[in-house]
Amino acid sequence: xxxxxxxxxxxxxxxxxxxxxxxxxxxxxxxxxxxxxxxxxxxxxxxxxxxxxxxxxxxxxxxxxxxxxxxxxxxxxxxxxxxxxxxxxxxxxxxxxxxxxxxxxxxxxxxxxxxxxxxxxxxxxxxxxxxxxxxx
Length: 136
Hints:
By secondary structure, the chain is α+β, with helices and mostly antiparallel strands.
């Protein structure tokens, strides 16, 4: 059986990479699991993720904590907030189809924006909670 966390990440990527509003803000499909050297700003990365057992007495399931990060070198937090909102709008309560799994729920939980210690880069952090079950 495939990893529910990996299949969810692939489905999230596909959804974000197909979102015209987000791509316009980013200047293209700048959504990375591993950021290429010299990548242009702004961009979105996959951050830490967690998976917990969400099984019942009769059904198997997984609870996922998914973090996405927006990165910007534009002065101030405006660009980061715009990208975070586009990510939230694309994913919150979205009907994704991770291969081999059924998405029960995908909800935005929190977002925050902050300046990186380098003093030039702004980072936005969006956290989501997802529930999945294996498809029979």
